[in-house]
Amino acid sequence: MCKALLFYVPRWLWKNWEAGKIHALMMDLDIGVVQDVEKRQKKRLLLDYLADNLKHHNWWAYRYFFCEFLALVNIVGQMFLMDRFFDGAFLTFGLEVIAFAEQDQEDRLDPLIYVFPRMTKCTFHKFGTSGEVEKHDALCLLPLNIVNEKVYIFLWFWFILLALLSVLVILYRIIIVISPKMRAYLLYIRFRLIRREVINTIVKKSYVGDWFLFYMLGQNVDSMIFKEVMHELARKLGHLGKDFSDT
């Protein structure tokens, strides 16, 4: 139960830090069919917020990145906790299983038996012919361990996969933070309706936190409405291009 709660901690933190910000800024603009008057009013409110609060979203974005890093820490920590629980056998568990599968059938020794023994010595107490309690030693099969070994093999590979993906996410975030060109490129390939020069202007005059907010909004707001908002924002930021309000 505690392990499951630890996995939920990053999500819980972000839900509290985000506090419905994206949903509030959407203002039902994810619906493409909106009355013109209502759409113009909501677009103006969104545009005014983005322009007035430009360069003030870094702390908000960094807290999201921190939650991603916390997810990686949690996975690594869970693996070490399990390794401690299994007396140092969990970290190399999957590697030993792979090595065991590649060995000759006559020579190989199943490493799972050391962690999850399938048979053990049992002592039974029962009444004998004289009426006294007698002890009988026997070998007992542990069917639950046969299931447990499969479960923990899956968990080992699942943790390794999650750790690798989390490391890639952290590297991806580092590149985004240090490279404005990468931020512009990602916006361009994700939102093709927005002109490249508009994206370049916005990225040049904003911070990584603003980029993260734009990216999140673009995924939740109607594509045409988001394009219009970004074009208007570029104008406010001094973009000197031709009129593209209806392109």
From TrEMBL:
Bilayer disposition of the protein: Multi-pass membrane protein
GO function term, MF aspect, one: gap junction channel activity
Entry-linked PROSITE patterns: PANNEXIN (PS51013)
Origin: domain of life: Eukaryota
Predominant subcellular localization, coarse grouping: other
Entries under Pfam families matching the protein: Innexin
Keyword Transmembrane: yes
Transmembrane parts of this sequence: 61-81, 151-175
A cellular-component GO term for this protein: gap junction
Keyword Transmembrane: yes
Keywords on record: Cell junction, Cell membrane, Gap junction, Ion channel, Ion transport, Membrane, Transmembrane, Transmembrane helix, Transport
Location in the cell: Cell junction, Gap junction; Cell membrane
GO biological process: monoatomic ion transmembrane transport
Family that this chain belongs to: Belongs to the pannexin family.
Job description of the protein: Structural component of the gap junctions.
Name of this protein: Innexin
Source species of the chain: Tigriopus californicus (Marine copepod)
